[in-house]
């Protein structure tokens, strides 16, 4: 959608036309860490054992 090589229309102007912020254009998501994957797995296991737990009990 946004063409960084376009000499006639700067990136800032293209972002404004698309109604997105320039920081959203430059944002590079970070990958999932090993610790985060371990924690998500533990939460999934707990939820499968006790699906009736609410937020308070899960925390």
Mean pLDDT: 92
What overall form do the CA principal axes indicate?
A: elongated
Q: First CA to last CA: what distance?
A: 41 Å
**Total strands:** 0
Structural class by helix and strand composition: mainly alpha
Domains, number: 1
Rg over CA atoms = 21 Å
Measured by DSSP, the beta-strand proportion falls in under 5%
Helix content: 55-70%
Element-by-element helix/strand order: HHHH
Could you name the ranges where pLDDT drops below 50 across 5 or more consecutive residues? none
Give a quick account of the main beta sheet: strands, pairing sense, barrel closure. none
Question: Helical segment tally?
Answer: 4
Please tell me about this protein's structure.
This protein is mainly α and 59 residues long. The protein has one domain. 56% of the residues lie in helices and 0% in strands. The protein has helices spanning 11-18, 22-26, 34-49, 55-58. The protein is elongated and about 60 Å long. The chain starts with 10 loop residues before the first helix and ends with a helix. The mean pLDDT is 92.
Keywords:
about 60 residues; elongated; about 55% helix; 4 helices; single chain; mainly alpha
Provide a compact summary of the structure:
The protein is mainly α and 59 residues long. Helices cover 56% and strands 0% of the residues.
List the helices and strands and how they pair.
Blueprint: H1 11-18, H2 22-26, H3 34-49, H4 55-58
